[in-house]
Design goal:
It is a single chain. With 406 residues, this protein is of the alpha+beta class. The protein folds into two domains: 259 residues, no CATH class; 116 residues, Conserved hypothetical protein from pyrococcus furiosus pfu- 392566-001, domain 2 (2-Layer Sandwich). It is built from 13 helices and 21 strands. The strands form five sheets. Strands 1, 4, 5, 6, 8, 9, 10, 11 and 12 form a nine-stranded mixed sheet that branches. Helix 4 runs parallel beside helix 6 and helix 7 runs antiparallel to helix 8. It is globular.
């Protein structure tokens, strides 16, 4: 069963929620975070990326950064920007943009279930990134950004959520990127009913936030070493998450740019490619189906049919592209470390591919059909790992709206 528990959130006062809410810490660089938070003292980036308040060049993984993050979080409380709930609660969190709406349940999810694969994964984590968020959690004694979870739709949960969103929201604002964030706080009885309904959910799946969940599990071990509790669950036995029904989750393509053509001219490269796979001219910038990839080269779009060797179409398009083109033609064996590869995800779309090639910042761009959430579930259930940069989930949750203290 899936365990979700109410928690007493540390959260912004409603009139300042939009000023506090910040993009996830891991979708911006230090320079981008510094620019976004400039002139915005309440931005949660001062907590999630506290190096922006220290001299340029400061190691973002230094002790001073985590110390400053804890100070900044405390200051938001002292200034009355953040308040602590008197009673534990579950929350309903709705994201809406460009005609797309998804509504999830925010609460504290079981780390025991994460460790025992009831909460399933599809991505490997990096130790250095785990180290960073583990230190952040321990220094703040809080989880400040939610893990994005999904589950197979359940009508009983849908009914309770529909009733919750008929009431007055706690927060309702539209962020700078056009995404509308609406959060409702549930009363004790409704929180209990919703938690009970989740017990019928057999499995949860991490969509986005593998490093946050892994870090919460590692931080628990540190807190346990410091604790003398005799028994029973503690707040560090749970991680902050928002669970959305799979039928509402939207995955956008994660496209690729390659810096050079390996010494070939565009014409020679195209001729060589046509000897290996079917190529059509004038293809749409976004492929209409799995197994087809669109390629932007020398100012024109081409269609590549990569699914001939996979009639069941079970292989992910990122895998087909890697096996048919990136490795044999470019010698790219690991896209995570090869500096010739750049990734273009989400709403940046195919226009970003065109600009990069037209401006000479890349030689060729590849536009992919998005991965389906059922692929994610299938791969996680098989205990397999998706290739790097396979999925881009959008819209994204905001940091700082619901904080789980430990």
């Amino acid at each position: 069963m899936a365990i979700v528990r109410p928690f007493a959130a540390l959260r912004p006062v409603p009139e300042q929620a939009s000023e506090v809410a910040a993009v996830p810490y891991d979708v911006v660089t230090t320079a981008e975070a510094r620019a976004l938070a400039s002139g915005k003292p309440r931005s949660f980036l001062h907590v999630s990326r506290a190096e922006i308040d220290l001299p340029e060049g400061t190691d973002p993984y230094s002790k001073d950064v985590y110390r400053r993050a804890a100070q900044n979080l405390a200051r938001l409380g002292e200034d009355g920007v953040l308040i602590r709930e008197d009673e534990p609660a579950l929350y309903v969190y709705r994201l809406a943009t460009d005609g797309h709406v998804q509504t999830g349940v925010a609460g504290a999810f079981s780390i025991d279930e994460y460790d025992t694969e009831i909460v399933r994964k599809h991505e490997r984590t990096r130790r250095d990134k785990e180290d960073d968020r583990t230190r952040h959690i321990v220094a703040l004694r809080a989880q400040t950004g939610p893990v994005f979870l999904t589950y197979r739709d359940r009508s009983g949960i849908d009914e309770l959520v529909a009733r919750a969103v008929s009431g007055k929201p706690l927060y309702d604002f539209t962020a700078d990127d056009g995404v509308r964030h609406t959060i409702w706080r549930l009363g004790a009885d409704d929180s209990a009913r919703l938690a009970a309904e989740f017990e019928s959910v057999p499995l949860l799946y991490i969509a986005d936030g593998h490093h946050r969940a892994a870090s919460a599990s590692r931080a628990r071990e540190e807190f346990r070493d410091q604790s003398d509790r005799a028994g029973g669950a503690a707040q560090y036995d749970y991680f902050l998450g928002v669970a959305f029904p799979a039928g509402q989750v939207r995955i956008l393509p994660y496209n690729r740019l390659v810096a050079d053509l390996g010494g070939r001219s565009p014409g020679d490269f195209l001729f060589f490619l046509k000897q290996r796979i079917p190529v059509s001219e004038g293809a749409p910038a976004t492929p209409a189906r799995r197994g087809d990839v669109s390629m932007y080269l020398a100012g024109r779009w081409y269609g590549l049919s990569l699914a001939a060797g996979d009639p069941s179409r079970k292989a992910l398009d990122v895998t087909l592209l890697q096996d048919a083109i990136l490795e044999p033609l470019f010698g790219v064996r690991d896209v995570r470390i090869d500096k010739r590869i750049e990734f273009v995800g989400g709403s940046r779309g195919t226009e970003a591919l065109e600009r990069a090639v037209n401006e000479g910042r890349a030689a060729v761009g590849f536009s992919l059909h998005p991965v389906d959430v059922e692929d994610l579930i299938r791969i996680a259930d098989a205990n397999e790992i998706m290739p790097p940069k396979s999925t881009w989930f959008e819209p994204k949750l905001r940091d700082g709206l619901l904080i789980h203290e430990i």
